[in-house]
């Protein structure tokens, strides 16, 4: 065998052997995303002076992703400055909830969701602050 052919064969064998060291195939993730609304923010809101959530209002709240039995915290997802959130997770079943600030409540959570690889689940959450 020619030295060049031997070198090419050796490189090919090393390349194939090295590919097995990467830990195997990567499982595609699923995506959970949504929009969180928060209100009321002020005890009295007037049509000409709306009372809108501030970035700090959104920063105080988080979306919690728990294991399917609700016993283990899998992810704590922050809201952006407008209340949107997005997280990639392994495929599976999860319970989604919120961290409650004060007397916050929501009829939308806790909610059980199932994520499939490569797909997106949208869960919008409306938080009632209890301000009256």
Strand content: 35-45%
Shape from CA axes?
elongated
Instruction: Please identify the top-level CATH class.
Output: Mainly Beta
- CATH architecture title: Sandwich
Overall strand count: 8
Fraction of residues in helix: 10-25%
Overall residue-averaged pLDDT value: 87
Structural class, from helix and strand content?
Answer: alpha/beta
Main β-sheet, in a few words? 4 strands, mixed
Number of domains: 1
The CATH superfamily turns out to be: Carboxypeptidase-like, regulatory domain
Q: Return Rg in Å.
A: 24 Å
Order of helices and strands: HEHEEEEEEE
Per DSSP, the total helix count is 2
Low-confidence stretches: none
CATH topology: Immunoglobulin-like
Verbal overview:
The chain has helices at residues 3-19, 55-59, and strands at residues 30-39, 62-67, 73-78, 84-89, 92-98, 111-115, 120-122, 125-128. With 132 residues, the protein is α/β, with parallel strands linked by helices. The protein has one domain (29-128): Carboxypeptidase-like, regulatory domain (Immunoglobulin-like, Sandwich), CATH 2.60.40. The strands form 2 sheets. Strands 1, 4, 7 and 8 form a 4-stranded mixed sheet that branches. A 4-stranded antiparallel sheet has the order 3-2-5-6, with no helix packed on it. The protein is elongated, with a radius of gyration of 24 Å. The N and C termini lie far apart (87 Å). The model has no long low-confidence stretch (mean pLDDT 87).
């Amino acid at each position: 065998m020619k030295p060049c052919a031997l070198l090419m064969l050796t490189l090919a064998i090393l390349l194939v052997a090295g590919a097995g060291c990467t830990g195997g195939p990567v499982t595609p993730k699923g995506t959970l995303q949504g929009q969180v609304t928060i209100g009321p923010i002020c005890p009295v809101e007037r049509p000409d002076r709306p009372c809108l959530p501030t970035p700090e209002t959104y920063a105080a709240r988080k979306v919690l992703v728990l294991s399917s039995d609700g016993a283990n915290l899998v992810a704590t997802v922050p809201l952006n400055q407008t209340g949107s959130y997005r997280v990639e997770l392994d495929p599976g079943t999860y319970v989604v909830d919120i961290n409650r600030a004060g007397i916050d409540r929501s009829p939308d959570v806790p909610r059980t969701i199932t994520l499939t690889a490569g797909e997106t689940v949208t869960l919008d959450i409306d938080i009632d602050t209890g301000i009256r």
